[in-house]
Specification:
Mean pLDDT: 88
Strand content: 15-25%
Helix content: 25-40%
């Protein structure tokens, strides 16, 4: 490890579905967070680590801050996102190009109480049809607070990522590295496996059902033939959801399992035997103890 190193924590925040996880994955250079077109895909605080030369940035991917209230689950998401802002060296406030909503405004208001510098990252500029509209949009948001820097780009297309990395690394303090230079995330292989299964469920299921389920890994072991075996439980909140997840003659569950197995094989670089079950845990999203038992971060407040 270089003697004179710089390292720091960078929180990536914003409302749901602005591309925070895609941005973190792009900056780290590998998939540390699952991504889907549906909002609130990210449910946990996930750290993605990029080490380049004598600089290490720990990007903290967070659930989208939102205005929806009611369940213990949604309160947990907001607390997890808010607590991820503690003791960071830089905040990347991510918004979608040409869309600034009441939820964006609420996120910006929350950031006003934090001392870390805040940068504005305008994502998804590749979706803007009339680029001449982008400059007034940037100016309007830029007047809302004194940002450390303002940078438009596209995480999915890789646009302006190197410029963003340059801005980030220049603002990190002198510090020893927090992680081994080869490490890419703070999360375990079992956590990644559960997230991959949940990602495929999000992609396969319609409307609200993906938000009423979670995934737990019961077993991750190597059998006598050297093959990795993973057993996962899909927990749903209601009995009627179980039939939807399983599908007619098990077709939906088989579809999800096949897609997840392919993803896991690529990730682990080895053959994976994945077994899925679907079980009912009534009211899990409204029970703080159930959330904690299922592995969700429950920040103390």
């Amino acid at each position: 490890m270089p003697k004179d190193t710089r390292a720091g924590f960078v929180a990536v925040v914003g409302r749901p579905n602005v591309g925070k996880s895609t941005l973190v994955n792009a900056l780290v250079g590998t998939k540390v967070s699952i991504t889907t077109p549906k909002p609130q895909t990210t449910r946990h605080r996930i750290m993605g680590v990029r080490t380049q030369g004598d600089v290490q940035a720990v990007f903290v991917d967070t659930p989208g801050l939102h205005l929806r209230k009611g369940s213990a689950f949604h309160s947990m998401l907001n607390r997890t996102a808010s607590d991820s802002l503690v003791d960071v060296d830089l905040v990347l406030f991510v918004v979608q190009a040409m869309r600034f909503t009441a939820e964006d405004e609420a996120v910006l208001e929350r950031l006003s109480t934090h001392s870390a510098p805040v940068a504005l990252v305008i994502n998804k500029v590749d979706l803007v049809k009339h680029r001449e509209d982008l400059l007034p949009f940037l100016g309007d948001i830029g007047r809302r607070r004194d940002f450390a820097f303002v940078l438009p780009g596209s995480a999915s297309k890789g646009s302006n990522l190197q410029a963003l990395w340059g801005e980030v690394e220049s603002r990190l303090p002198a510090s020893p590295f927090f992680f081994d230079p080869q490490q890419k995330t703070d999360r375990s292989a079992q956590f990644h496996a559960s997230e991959v299964v949940r990602e495929q469920l999000f992609m396969a299921l319609d409307q609200e059902l993906p938000y009423a389920l979670t995934v737990e890994i019961e077993r991750d072991a190597v059998n006598n033939e050297g093959q990795r075996e993973i057993d996962a439980v899909i927990w749903v909140a209601e009995q009627r959801h179980k039939g939807i997840v399983i599908g007619k003659q098990g077709a939906k569950l088989k579809q999800v399992g096949s897609a997840a197995r392919r993803q896991l094989k690529r990730h682990f670089g080895e053959s994976v035997h994945l077994t899925l079950w679907c079980r009912v845990k009534s009211g899990w999203a409204d029970d703080a103890r159930a959330l904690a038992a299922l592995g969700y971060d429950m920040p103390e407040r």
